[in-house]
Amino acid sequence: MQLTYIFVTILTLYTTLSRANILPGPPATDRRPIHGDSPLYQCDIYERQILNIENVDLSPNPPKRNSKLNITASGEAFKEIKKGAYIDIVVRLGYIKLLTQTFDLCDMLEDEDVEGLRCPVQPGKYNLAKSVDIPAEVPPGRYIFSARAYTVDDELITCITGEVLFPATY
Fold first, then answer.
1. pTM, full prediction
2. Which residues form the domain of 148?
3. What is the pLDDT of residue 33?
4. Which N-terminal stretch is annotated as signal sequence (predicted)?
5. What is the pLDDT of residues 17-66, one digit of tens each?
């Protein structure tokens, strides 16, 4: 009886904290899995978004240290994305915030050379592929990330969240 009471109390506390956004990551009710082989979710799904991400595949999934990560994605832009668009990125290692930074989205597209995609991005369907190297020095842990992209007029382009576990190596 006492154990049941403790379990119910802990479950109630966890539910309350997660709905109040005190626990890291978006509430499960405000996101949906992105189709494909990846740990990614589209977040803020109840807000109008200019980009619908239809599919994302990662190879290998999950990503591994000291290897090449191949990313393929498809989606549809419903409105032109002009210069001045930006992306807010947050990365946590467990509960520790490692990075909170805003980047110019158009500069990122040019610098990362994502299949020649440049601003202004016209409405339409897109299929993209990109390879990145994962360094061997990535510390072990559960990385939780979110990226929210906005137009120059602060309209939500898209929101992506997910987590990746890099296990300890012995």
1. 0.78
2. 2-166
3. 95
4. 1-20
5. 344 444 455 455 789 999 999 999 999 999 999 999 999 999 999 999 99
**Count: domains in the chain:** 1
Q: In a 3-state reduction of DSSP, which class is residue 75?
A: strand
Measured CA to CA, the distance from residue 120 to residue 130 in angstroms comes to 20
Helix (H, G, I), strand (E, B) or coil at 2: helix
How is residue 81 annotated by DSSP? B
The dihedrals phi and psi of 84, each to the nearest 5 degrees, come to 105, -10
The full DSSP string for 93-154 is ETTEEEEEEEEEHHHHHHHHT-TT--SSBPSEEEEEEEEEEEPTTPPSEEEEEEEEEE-TT-
pLDDT tens for 115-158 read 788 999 999 999 999 999 999 999 999 999 999 999 999 999 99
Q: Alpha-carbon torsion 31, 100, 165, 14, what sign? A: negative
Q: What is the CATH number of the domain that holds 57?
A: 2.70.220.10
